[in-house]
Every structure is written in C-alpha cells, then in structure tokens.
C-alpha cells in the first residue's frame, strides 16, 4: 500500500521512578532511536512530541522542548495531546507529514514523569469538567476498570483467577524486558494477597504510574529504499472517537449516552476495526498484540475488541495458553503496563517499539516466533482511540 | 437530610423528596442526556436544539458495581477516618443509559449483584462551612 511509512529506528528510556525531568527521558529515548535508525538528528526534518497536560503545566509542550534539548536545527515541529493516546497522535502527525510529501525523515518522542498513586485532575472548583466531577464523587480510574471486570464476571463467568492469570502471564513476559520497571515473576498467591483497591481488583491487578520515554524514527518508503533498509512498516494508525450512543460508561464520564433513539456502539471494538480496514488485514493475520492493560481484566476485554475471539470467549482464549509467549498469538510479550506502569504520553509509542523489535526478531527471550504483523491498542481519556498496525 | 442541606453538585438533581437526577430529552429524536443539555443534540443523526428538562427514572438495575478501598484524591473530600464505600453503575430502562454513583453508606459489595434493582436517594457526600452537601446515591430496593 502506498499509504505506508517505514520505521527506521526505535528507542526507550527504561520505565521506573527515576526522579528526573521528562525531558531527560525523552532525549535518552530519542538518541537511542536515532542511533538505532543510523540517522543523525541534524537530518531530521519533522519532530513530533507526545504531550502530557497534567495540571496544565505549560512546560509539557513536548515537541519544541525535545527539539531544543536535542539542539535547535530548524526542523518543523508538532505537539499532540490525547491523554494516553498522545503517542499515536504524534505518530499520526509524522506519518501524515511524510505521506503528503512534506518531509522524508521524522522523529516522534513521548516522555513523562508521573506522580505516585492515583492520577488526579487539576485543583480548584471546576464542576464543568467531567474529570473533576467524577473525582468529587470519589470515582477514580480503578473504579472504571473494576466495573468492567465485575461485568465480565456476571456476563461471562470470568473469575478473579482469570484476572490474576493475566498478571502472572505478563509478569513472566516482562521479566525478560530490560526496559520494564517491574521484572519480578509473580505467583497467583502473591497477586491475590495484595491489597484490595476496587473490588474485585487488587493492587497487583492494577497498573502503577511510571516515568519513562519512547521514541520512533519514521521515514518515507522511498527514503528507506534508497538506504537499502528492510524496515518494518506502519500499515495503519487508528485514532477514532466513539460513536453515539456509547455502550459503556467511559472514563471520565459519569453516564453513558442514551440509546433511546439510536443503537449503542462499543467504542473499543471500533478502534481496532478502523485499523484493520486501513491496513487491509484482519485478526487472523496477526502474530502478536500489545494492548492497554491498565488493569489485568482489561486485557480480556481487548481480546474481544481486537476480534481475537468472540465476546465472552476471552477467558477461554487465555486459559488455552494462546496469548502467552509460545502460544498462537502472544498478547503483551513486552510485559504490558503490568510490568511498565503507565507513563501517559510514552505508552502508545512504547507499544510500537515492542512491535518493531518483535518484527525484526530482536526481542531476545521474549521473541514471538516469525512475527510478521502486530497490532497495538490503547485508549486516551475523553474518547481518544488508538491502534497501530506494524508489519514486515 | 437536614433542612440546611445543599447540593454538592448544584443543578444535577432535585433536593426535594423524592429526589431525582435532572436530565434533558431532545424534543426531536427523544435521546436523553445526563447531565442536562440545552444547546445541540449530541445524536449525530439529529439536528435538534430544543430540549425538555425532566427528572430521570429514580430506579434502575445494577449494570456493574465496585468499591473504593483507598481514599480518592482531591477534589474528593474524604472524611477521617476514611470509610470505604461502594459504587454502582445503574442502567435506567426508559432512558437507556447508565449512570454511576456511590451506593448508600452501610451497603457493601457483598450485598450487591449485577441486575439488582436500586433506587436513588440523597445522602451527605461531605460537610463544609455551609453544612451538609448532599449527592445522589443508589440504595438496593426492598425485596
């Protein structure tokens, strides 16, 4: 397809709590991606930054901040904010610039420094902001994850043991990942002895918040050909919004749309559908998936929303072993958010880094055999869909 | 509820008993909205811009439920000592929408089930210099 771009290089700063500026992490990841691509920063024509707006702090205007820290060289600049989907939107901006002929070589960077504990909104009395309203009512992020988890239990017979099995699987995957923050293999007993956060989810079912950074170097296919590079290609970037009427109550809303006049639609299922349409691929073509496991139970929802199985069959797919390394379709071979924790604007790019390493056969102990195509899926607060398909 | 009670979220629900959430209904397509809407209908197939304000159904069925075992961060005003509370997502049949809310104090997740009938009541969310500030909460209907 002509609408593809090449991924020449990827890089990360390891996830953790390092106590430094997000700029340091971003530059570390950017330089690693540039070195991986074998290109010089001075030759980059477009820099696209994924931003965090937490507390409205203006220092997080990411694109120019990274450009200055790398050394001003006159590249065109973009900054994208879409909460957890910021990385995909920054990637989409770079792809669009390349495909319209506006540049040949682009650098995309996302980095964050996150506070410990619950993510919370900006201070003040702001009842016009739905994010403020739900926190005033005591409804945190884990509330939503737990509502979906309990719904699976009631509808499909999911058990806490299934959620725990996702965590144990992802912890085993991440144990071999040098960029993961948590590299400990957990037992089911350890997970189920951790403190209850939002029934039925315990602390070790819910992801932490982290510092971290990821960067991707993109080029036109022609640029990659000239340099004789066999680079994986971005085949799709889905950035869809929900469709009225929303079927599930989505963070940070306090209510769904009303389905009194029109049928309801699942937002998460529409995210992957758009990516498949764009790539001309389907779930049967995938070798792996990286999905947004903010809580272990959400990974099961994603199996269905990616079309890896029918609704209600995710627990069966998990129990069959298909989604662990060595299985038919490993999910979160990186270890996922269970091992990384969430560094908001870096997360969607980190997923792409993992897909690229897997497709190049460079994932070491966590390598998926003969990986040919992979999908990432994520979702940003306020209705930002995000899915990327990368193929060899 | 005392006579001094005021709304924690003014304009989102009535204060006189029996309390109800205040929503809007599009006069063109019939979609309901909560919180209220008075500008343009959000159904993309509808050009409506006129709404009637109405009280939403006071009862529904639990779509799902959970609890908060840790004190939420501000702007939640957690009393000391913190007491965990249950939260329910409740499906309103007529409106075909789901609304979140706390469950009344004293009712834990062990007493809840998906599909259970609940009704809306007002209960204190926090107290400040103006007295009790109340909000809607869900209470299991008497069997």
Topology of this protein?
The complex is a heterodimer of chains A (392) and B (143).
Chain A: E1 5-16, H1 22-37, E2 46-50, H2 62-70, E3 76-80, H3 86-99, E4 105-112, H4 130-136, H5 141-156, H6 160-174, H7 188-193, E5 196-198, E6 201-202, E7 211-219, H8 221-226, E8 233-238, H9 267-279, E9 288-291, H10 296-305, H11 314-319, H12 336-340, H13 347-360, E10 373-380, E11 384-391
Parallel strand pairs in A: 2-3, 2-4, 9-10
Antiparallel strand pairs in A: 1-7, 1-8, 4-7, 5-6, 8-11, 10-11
Helix pairs in contact in A: 1-2, 6-10
Chain B: E1 6-7, E2 22-26, E3 32-33, E4 51-55, E5 59-68, E6 85-92, E7 97-103, E8 117-128, E9 131-140
Parallel strand pairs in B: 1-9, 7-9
Antiparallel strand pairs in B: 2-3, 2-4, 5-6, 5-8, 6-7, 8-9
What do these coordinates show?
The complex is a heterodimer of chains A (392) and B (143). Chain A has two domains: 5-117 and 212-233, Thiolase/Chalcone synthase (Peroxisomal Thiolase, Chain A, domain 1, 3-Layer(aba) Sandwich), CATH 3.40.47.10; 130-208 and 235-391, Thiolase/Chalcone synthase (Peroxisomal Thiolase, Chain A, domain 1). Chain A has 13 helices and eleven strands. Chain A has helices at residues 22-37, 62-70, 86-99, 130-136, 141-156, 160-174, 188-193, 221-226, 267-279, 296-305, 314-319, 336-340, 347-360, and strands spanning 5-16, 46-50, 76-80, 105-112, 196-198, 201-202, 211-219, 233-238, 288-291, 373-380, 384-391. In chain A, the strands form two sheets. Chain A has a nine-stranded mixed sheet with strand order 3-2-4-7-1-8-11-10-9, sandwiched between helices. In chain A, a hairpin with a 2-residue loop joins strand 5 (196-198) and strand 6 (201-202). In chain A, helix 1 (22-37) packs across helix 2 and helix 6 (160-174) packs across helix 10 (296-305). Chain A is globular and about 55 Å long. The two termini of chain A are 13 Å apart. Chain B has a domain at 57-140. Chain B has a five-stranded mixed beta barrel with strand order 5-6-7-9-8. Chain B has a three-stranded antiparallel sheet with strand order 3-2-4, with no helix packed on it. The mean pLDDT of chain B is 95.
């Amino acid at each position: 397809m002509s609408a593809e771009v090449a991924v020449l290089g990827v890089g990360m700063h390891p996830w953790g709590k390092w106590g430094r500026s997000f700029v340091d992490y971003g530059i570390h990841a950017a330089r690693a991606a540039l070195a991986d691509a074998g290109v010089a920063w001075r030759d980059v024509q477009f820099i696209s930054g994924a931003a965090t707006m937490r507390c409205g702090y203006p220092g997080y205007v990411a694109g120019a901040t990274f450009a200055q820290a790398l050394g001003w060289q006159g590249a065109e600049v973009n900054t994208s904010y879409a909460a957890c989907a910021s990385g995909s939107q920054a990637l989409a901006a770079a792809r669009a610039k390349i495909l319209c002929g506006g540049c040949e070589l682009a650098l995309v960077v996302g980095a964050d420094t996150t506070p410990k504990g619950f993510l919370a909104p900006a201070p003040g009395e702001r009842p016009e902001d739905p994010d403020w309203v739900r926190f005033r009512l005591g409804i945190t992020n884990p509330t939503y994850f737990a509502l979906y988890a309990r719904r699976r239990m009631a509808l499909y017979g999911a058990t806490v043991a299934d959620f725990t099995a996702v965590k144990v699987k992802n912890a085993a995957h991440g144990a071999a990942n040098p960029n993961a923050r948590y590299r400990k293999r957990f037992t089911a007993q350890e997970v189920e002895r951790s403190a209850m956060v939002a029934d039925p989810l315990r602390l070790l079912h819910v992801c932490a918040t982290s510092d971290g950074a990821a960067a991707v170097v993109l080029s036109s296919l022609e640029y990659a050909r000239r340099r004789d590079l066999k680079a994986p290609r971005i085949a799709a970037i889905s950035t869809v919004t929900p469709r009225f009427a929303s079927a599930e109550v989505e963070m940070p809303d306090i209510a769904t749309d009303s389905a009194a006049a029109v049928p309801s639609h699942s937002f998460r299922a529409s995210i992957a559908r758009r990516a498949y349409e764009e790539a001309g691929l389907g779930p049967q073509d995938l070798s792996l998936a990286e999905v947004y496991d903010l809580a272990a139970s959400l990974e099961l929802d994603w199996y269905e929303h990616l079309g890896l199985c029918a609704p209600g069959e995710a627990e069966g797919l998990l129990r069959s072993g298909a989604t662990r390394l060595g299985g038919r379709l490993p999910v979160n071979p990186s270890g996922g958010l269970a091992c990384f924790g969430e560094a908001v604007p870096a997360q969607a790019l980190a997923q792409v880094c993992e897909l690229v390493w897997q497709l190049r056969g460079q994932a070491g102990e966590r390598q998926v055999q003969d990986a040919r195509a992979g999908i990432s899926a994520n979702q940003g607060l306020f209705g930002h869909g995000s899915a990327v398909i990368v193929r060899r | 509820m005392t006579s001094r009670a005021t709304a924690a979220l003014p304009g989102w629900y009535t204060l006189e008993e029996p309390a109800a959430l205040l929503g809007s209904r599009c006069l063109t397509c019939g979609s309901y909205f909560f919180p209220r809407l008075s500008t343009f209908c959000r159904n993309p197939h509808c050009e409506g811009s006129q709404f009637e304000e109405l009280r939403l159904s006071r009862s529904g069925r639990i779509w799902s439920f959970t609890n908060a075992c840790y004190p939420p961060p501000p702007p939640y005003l957690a009393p000391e000592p913190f007491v965990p509370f249950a939260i329910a997502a409740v499906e309103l049949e007529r409106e075909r929408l789901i609304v979140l809310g706390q469950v009344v104090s004293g009712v834990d997740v062990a007493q809840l089930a998906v599909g259970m009938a609940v009704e809306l009541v007002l209960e204190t969310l926090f107290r400040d210099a103006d007295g009790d500030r109340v909000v809607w909460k869900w209470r299991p209907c008497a069997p």
